[in-house]
């Protein structure tokens, strides 16, 4: 849960590190050239050696899967099946086929990937030696982040090299953290990093030892949509909540439905969650949309919200939860869709799985990401975040802050919508930016990214806001109409990362806020 | 008042979730209706310029979230309000019963100078669903009288969907607020006119 300390948190050191990288220390060059030669000479041999290994792996996995499937099938055949088990059986069979296809896909992919790495690794190393330079990154921001943590490993040589000649260049690559990390940062994809952890023990060890490699890929890389839900579930440790929960989804749902405390409120919102007109979008072309309310979808969302109210009776239902739940459900469904359209029976089972998956992701967000305090009566966390944001805003952009004050545009007027829905309320935000923010949010397990993005939006909009009236400012903050490029991932996120927001800062502000609240309370009780 | 070119009126719309606050505001300001609105989170406003008694008035109409727990954010939004529109849904008796708490909470958080005479108006929305009506008109009449016997609050039955009574309702609240502002101006000795007072503001808005 705790974040590993960040070695590059001091910005001053970054420039130094970069300098070091561009001029390799004398003496090491000859070692590298030798190693290079070796690597080059046995490239072909490595390919041959790796292929059977992978084939073996594949065979092993598939034989295990087959035997597991056979046992499962046997058992099912031997027991007479009650009616209730039918959907489970269907789902299980479906799951099996998915697993099989996944396995065969992934082993081919691993093989391809391995070959790609090998080629790339060789190329990289030779380039490094010839030009005495690091990989050329398109993004300078990304470069500094990568080089800082890579530098740590620059002089660590592979233990395999010491042992002798019997190791393939591929193995040397995997076993030398510096080369491995270089390749991974170059590829910059979370999926690839995850796949590499499955290659061999030392790779797995190296990758898990360096959290920065993950963080780097989450921040600057791409994540393909079908893996997003899996990724969120993994980093939010959803399974642990699911497994340690006292009751299951269905029980929470029934508890909540039988009490009925929130049925009315949920019903009111669910029918309009899928409405497509944001309340204050102020653009004229959105009025004539046809109604395509999907009752099935509304019913699923309603069930999820009921179950949440059952799981968190202290929260019940709060507006904003509908936005977030609907968004996650949509992602879950999108990830599922790649397996093709289901037959009606299977679809019912699949829907149930989707709804429960969504529910447990929400539970994890509630428990470990502060959403529980965000939505519970009193909205304490929201008040705290508004306070924290106000202070950060004032410190980061004093001139703009003064203008906001002069125009009486209070933080609450825009931050509540953004934060209470994890930015879903801001229609103008492109999906790509939003997904990336959510990836970072779930991975980093704290609110820094939300603050950073909000600050970055204001910073980038400064010229559109300075000198404007409250009315114009609010229109802009709802639409970003004059300059929608502000919200693109490539423009917004680098600025967001350049703004200094640390956990220490947030903690300090939280203490100040708590003190302030206690002081105000004691004053009012004295009255 | 004549020497001021522009008058700004800040009007807050309050009421339970789903009674039609956003719809009423958009019907009045944009003459448009949609049943595709998502729930309002936090608060936001639209402005509309109108002429009352040959005066140009800018109405800044604030739409707020209807769920009770968002009331704790009221301080930020209600400050400097000149008038308040309380909305309930004629097909939903609970939304009617909650009017009291919306009114009290508003007065507590906005802290107007003269809470007894603060300009309120009550709207019973969704009259287009007359056959599902569950709050009879007499009930709201009684409620308005009970709150202030001398000067009962005005109330209107409206339909944001069919634009019934919306224009009249907002015109009325603008007039009442303007009147109240003038009374206050007269009441306060000329030398100490408080431009940052509850009623009138120069454009650019100060609270």
Automatic annotation (TrEMBL), chain A:
Residue span(s) of domain Rab-GAP TBC: 222-445
Q: Which domain of life is it from?
A: Eukaryota
Question: What InterPro entries does this protein map onto?
Answer: Rab-GAP-TBC_dom, Rab-GAP_TBC_sf, Rab_GAP_TBC_domain
Q: Which Pfam families match?
A: RabGAP-TBC (PF00566)
Q: Where is the composition biased (Polar residues)?
A: 12-21
Q: Which GO terms describe its molecular function?
A: GTPase activator activity; small GTPase binding
Q: Where is this region: Disordered?
A: 1-29, 58-79
Entry protein name: Rab-GAP TBC domain-containing protein
Lineage of the source organism? Eukaryota, Sar, Stramenopiles, Oomycota, Saprolegniomycetes
From TrEMBL, chain B:
Which key words tag this protein in UniProt?
Answer: GTP-binding, Lipoprotein, Nucleotide-binding, Prenylation
GO MF assignments: GTP binding; GTPase activity
Q: Its family?
A: Belongs to the small GTPase superfamily. Rab family.
Q: Per the record's keyword annotation, is Nucleotide-binding included, yes or no?
A: yes
Q: Which Pfam families did the record assign?
A: Ras
Spell out the protein name for this chain.
Rab7 family GTPase
- Asked if Cell division is a keyword of the record, the answer is no
Task: State the organism named in the record.
Answer: Thraustotheca clavata
NCBIfam families in alphabetical order: small_GTP (TIGR00231)
């Amino acid at each position: 849960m705790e974040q590993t300390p960040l070695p590059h948190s001091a910005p001053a050191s970054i420039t130094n590190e970069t300098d070091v990288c561009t001029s390799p220390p004398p003496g090491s060059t000859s070692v590298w050239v030798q190693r290079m030669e070796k690597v080059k000479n046995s490239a072909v041999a490595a390919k041959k050696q790796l292929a059977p290994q992978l084939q073996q792996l594949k065979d092993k996995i598939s034989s295990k899967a087959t035997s597991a499937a056979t046992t499962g099938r046997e058992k099912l055949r031997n027991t007479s099946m009650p009616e209730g088990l039918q959907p489970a059986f269907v789902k299980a069979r479906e799951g099996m086929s998915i697993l099989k296809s996944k396995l065969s896909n992934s082993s081919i992919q691993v093989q391809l990937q391995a070959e790609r790495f090998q080629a790339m690794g060789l190329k990289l190393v030779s380039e490094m030696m010839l030009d005495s330079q690091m990989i050329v990154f398109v993004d300078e921001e990304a470069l500094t982040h990568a080089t800082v943590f890579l530098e740590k490993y620059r002089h660590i040589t592979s233990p395999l090299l010491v042992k002798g000649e019997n190791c393939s260049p591929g193995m040397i690559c995997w076993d030398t953290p510096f080369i491995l990390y270089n390749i991974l940062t170059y590829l910059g994809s979370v999926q690839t990093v995850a796949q590499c952890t499955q290659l061999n023990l030392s790779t797995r060890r190296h990758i898990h030892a360096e959290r920065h490699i993950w963080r780097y890929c989450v921040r600057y890389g791409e994540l393909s949509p079908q893996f997003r839900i899996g990724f969120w579930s993994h980093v939010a440790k959803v399974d642990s909540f699911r497994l340690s929960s006292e009751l299951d989804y269905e029980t929470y749902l029934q508890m909540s439905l039988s009490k009925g405390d929130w049925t009315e409120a949920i019903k009111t919102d669910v029918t309009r969650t899928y409405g497509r007109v944001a309340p204050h979008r102020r653009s004229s072309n959105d009025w004539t949309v046809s109604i395509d309310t999907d009752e099935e979808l509304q019913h699923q969302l309603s069930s999820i919200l009921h179950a949440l109210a059952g799981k968190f009776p202290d929260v019940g239902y709060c507006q904003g939860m509908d936005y977030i739940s609907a968004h996650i459900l949509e992602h879950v469904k999108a990830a599922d869709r790649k397996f093709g359209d289901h037959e009606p029976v299977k679809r019912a089972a699949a829907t149930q799985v989707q709804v429960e998956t969504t529910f447990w992701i929400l539970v994890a967000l509630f428990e470990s990401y502060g959403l529980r305090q965000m939505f519970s009566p009193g909205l304490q966390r929201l008040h705290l975040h508004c306070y924290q944001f106000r202070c950060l805003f004032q410190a980061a952009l004093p001139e703009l802050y003064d203008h906001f004050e002069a125009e009486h545009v209070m933080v609450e007027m825009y931050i509540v919508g953004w934060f209470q829905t994890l930015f879903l309320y801001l229609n103008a935000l492109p999906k790509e930016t939003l997904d990336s923010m959510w990836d970072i949010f779930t991975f980093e397990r704290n609110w820094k990214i939300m603050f950073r993005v909000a600050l970055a939006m204001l910073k980038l909009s400064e010229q559109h806001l300075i000198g404007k009236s409250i009315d114009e400012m609010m229109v802009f903050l709802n639409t970003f109409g004059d300059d929608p490029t502000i919200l693109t991932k490539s423009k917004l996120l680098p600025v967001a990362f350049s703004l200094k927001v640390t956990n220490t800062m947030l903690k300090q502000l939280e203490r100040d806020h708590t003190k302030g609240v206690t002081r105000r309370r004691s004053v009012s009780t004295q009255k | 008042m004549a020497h001021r070119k522009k008058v700004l009126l800040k009007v807050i719309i309050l009421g339970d979730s789903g009674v039609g606050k956003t719809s009423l505001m958009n019907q009045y300001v944009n003459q448009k209706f949609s049943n595709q609105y998502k729930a309002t989170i936090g608060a936001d406003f639209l402005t509309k310029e109108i002429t009352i008694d040959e005066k140009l008035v800018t109405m800044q109409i604030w739409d707020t979230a209807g769920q009770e727990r968002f009331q704790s954010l009221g301080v930020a939004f209600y400050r400097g309000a000149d008038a308040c529109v309380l909305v309930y849904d004629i097909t939903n008796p609970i939304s009617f019963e909650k009017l009291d708490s919306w009114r009290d909470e508003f007065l507590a958080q906005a802290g107007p100078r003269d809470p007894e005479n603060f300009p309120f108006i009550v709207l019973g929305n969704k009259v287009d669903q007359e056959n599902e009506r569950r709050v009879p008109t007499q009930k709201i009449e009684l409620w308005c009288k009970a709150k202030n016997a001398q000067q009962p609050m005005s109330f209107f039955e409206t339909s944001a969907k069919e634009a019934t009574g919306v224009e009249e309702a907002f015109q009325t609240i603008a007039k009442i607020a303007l009147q109240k502002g003038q009374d206050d101006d007269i009441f306060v000795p000329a030398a100490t006119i408080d431009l940052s007072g509850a009623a009138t503001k120069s454009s650019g808005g100060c609270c």
